[in-house]
Amino acid sequence: MNPSFLISNVRLSGGASVDVAISAGRIEAIGANLPRDADVVVEDGGSALVLPGFVEGHTHLDKTNWGLPWYRNEVGPRLVDRIENERSWRASSGHDAGKQSLALARAFVAAGTTRIRTHVDIDTDAGLEHLEGVLETRETLVGVADIQIVAFPQSGMLRRPGTDALLGDALKSGADILGALDPALIDQDPVKSLDTTFAIADRYQKPVDIHLHEPGEVGAFTIKLLLDRVEALGMQGRVVISHAFCLGMLPDRERDVLLARIAQLSVALLTTAPPSVPVPSLRACIEGGVTLFAGNDGIRDTWTPFGSPDMLERAMFVAMRHDLRRDVDLALAFDCVSTLGAHACGFADYGLHVGARADLVLVDAATVAHAVVARPVRKLVVSNGKVVARNGAMLA
For the Amidohydrolase domain, which residue ranges apply (predicted)? Predict the structure, then answer.
């Protein structure tokens, strides 16, 4: 063993005190009193709990007003009100997606998140402007944070002709995933909308991540259409349904039939665990073999004044939403912003084990459950084997 960096005196979730040896950006060894050469850089962990770097499974870096003066929200109650207000405000205010996405991404890193999936608006007004800003942020943070970009038709696709071509341009320009939005309620033609979406995904060989706010039977019908296309195109393991509120509205028997097919086709579900609308049941998903992971959605933007770039806080919201109180259950909520998020998004080499990429977070907490509830300052954040933040602040 010839590590270049060693973090000593940290505790695993089971309580054992260990050292973590890092070499070439990966975890080389985990164990008590690991040997080290005289020239190895050693960081004393001070008996902190060591966790894997967190995963933000669904946010909107391009929209945020993080660090800007307070935005006064007077938007109407409908989804379309929020869409049109945001598009108009961003154009009139000169909102800078590059500057703002970088500010929020840095805040994520400072709080221990090293993998991020962000949706970026693509529409016929702004074109690829917002994407270009987030691509700059991704380039700036290479080696510090992995950022997946979803080309997202926030204003709808069919209802704004030309958006489908722009989505293809976005994928050619560097977006990793194709997004979609409410094929029935926004595009008002679920068959054509999904056919178009999956045709683009198939053409560019990209995964799909769809926002699905549609309620009850309407949402269930859309999911069935979507699953048919996943099966026909062999896209198992490459599709995420974000929000999926309808699964929290259906009778248990009908829900479980849908969950069985979702599991069979390895489609993952994303939740933000909002308190105001029904959500997919975490227990039902676990029992049905469905991956349910978590994200913030928008943070401090024209849609919502809420949110923060702290995935331990989001794990706490997941726990509260699903009435998780025991330590073992709170650990399930943490899985939603760590292991399950990495699996669903396809972030490779993730975890706290030998051979994984060395993305680590140190916190003063007794257990994972304690960390989720108390959300202590991140003492140390390591990404790709390098220290990138200390005591809640990102390093230059």
Answer: 48-389
Is residue 350 within 8 Å of 342, Cβ to Cβ? yes
SS3 state at 366: coil
202 touches 158 (CB < 8 A): no
> Over the stretch 139-160, which tens digit does the pLDDT of each residue have?
999 999 999 999 999 999 999 9
For 297-313, the DSSP string reads: B--SSSS-S---S-HHH
| Contact by Cβ (8 Å): 207, 179 | no
Complete domains list, the chain, with CATH: 5-52+351-394 (2.30.40.10), 54-345 (3.20.20.140)
Q: Is the dihedral of CA 95, 274, 374, 118 positive or negative?
A: negative
370 burial (CB, 10 Å; 0-12 / 13-18 / 19+) is: middle
Sheet containing strand 292-294, edge to edge, reads 54-59, 113-121, 146-152, 177-181, 208-212, 239-243, 268-271, 292-294
